[in-house]
């Protein structure tokens, strides 16, 4: 809008902008003759200066003419549907009854505040959230539509969505899907009996981290991933990084004091409740004292892991993060020890890459994004038993899985969510599931939605427009 106002000013009074400039130039020209009249002949300097002044005069006039005509050209007001809608939205979100000199915030945002309340399912509400909500509706439409002969990846996304929204089936299965998976990740000691004899004797930290990583996408303690090489965008390279996600939102929470006391307490209770529920489902003895003791140790461990991570400020400089070295050097220089067993980086890497049939020699170049984290982590790990470590790692897996289980399991995280986000209710099931599928199969969904021509008016690059062609969902 301000641009529009300025434009009008220029077009209404074009003479005004020309006049003063022209006068200035004239008076400048007038000062020249009296001076020169005193002398019978002009020196070459005077002639030169006069030429320069004349040239400048011509340039200034040309610029003024150019400027004036250009402003007139841009006088056109955008009246397309998009522009009108945007303008109307801006005006709606303002409160013109308030004097901007009294309260600028109210003037600029008063309309938004009057018309919107933060939904119970969310901890914030903004124009980006509105866009996200709209995207979820588009996703719902795409995921619920059946299409003949579509790509198998899309069928998988739809199957995931269907099973996620099938509430009766979810209720019927209770905690079974999770309980069936626990043995695959070497069990959750807190929720089983005889872990030491059944799993502990053959347990290896490398195996446990690798399994959670390659099979379930849970990255704990040692974050292994393959990404683009920061210094060579044509190649991919193995990265080792610190644990990027913690159970609570950031490392600050682990002080557990002041505003963080309640989230910490709710987090602890969340873990206790899930452990009790699983033990009950398995018909095992539930000894609350014992569960609480183990949970306390897990929280202590996570506090120390959080403390060992680099702060976001430490990670500002990408050049310092880029520690390119051979895999063998990791073994020699970054020792992690648990129960007197040394972490074997090569074995760990081969374990993960073996699942996709890739062999990795010790001479393979890798990037260590967090050398200081690994140095600080070693003394931390030394303080805990393998049971504690396994309890922690599988907890992080369990807490992510709970959301897909029956109501009884989902309810264990209610108080935790409230303490963390201030939300009191959950989003509609279809919405949660659209988000879930999008998070887990984001590339697939992105392509699908784009193919449908529905994503924020994005243009197809091949010039075809299959906005209304259901065949556009084909691979
Ligand atoms: C839920 O799953 C069950 C078992 O697979 C199936 O029989 C039922 O039709 C599904 N319900 C819906 C609404 O998809
Ligand atoms: C529960 O566990 C605690 C600590 O491990 C133990 O001292 C107590 O005897 C147990 N209680 C029962 C009823 O088994
Ligand atoms: C956090 O880590 C530093 C060393 O990195 C250590 O000196 C400090 O004691 C740790 N704090 C806690 C609470 O563990
Ligand atoms: C690894 O350790 C060796 C000797 O112990 C040292 O020379 C080398 O600089 C270290 N490399 C890194 C990347 O820390």
Automatic annotation (TrEMBL):
The chain crosses the membrane at residues 47-68. It comes from the Eukaryota. It is a single-pass type II membrane protein. Keywords: Cell membrane, Lipoprotein, Membrane, Myristate, Phosphoprotein, Signal-anchor, Transmembrane, Transmembrane helix. GO terms for cellular component: plasma membrane. Pfam families: Peptidase_M13_N. It is found in: Cell membrane; Membrane. One of its GO terms (molecular function) is metalloendopeptidase activity. InterPro entries: MetalloPept_cat_dom_sf, Peptidase_M13, Peptidase_M13_dom_2, Peptidase_M13_N. The keyword Membrane applies. GO terms for biological process: amyloid-beta clearance; protein processing. It catalyses: substance P + H2O = substance P(1-9) + L-Leu-L-Met-NH2; Preferential cleavage of polypeptides between hydrophobic residues, particularly with Phe or Tyr at P1'; substance P + H2O = substance P(1-7) + L-Phe-Gly-L-Leu-L-Met-NH2; neurotensin + H2O = neurotensin(1-10) + L-tyrosyl-L-isoleucyl-L-leucine. Its EC number is 3.4.24.11. Residues 100-447 form the Peptidase M13 N-terminal domain. Belongs to the peptidase M13 family. This is Neprilysin.
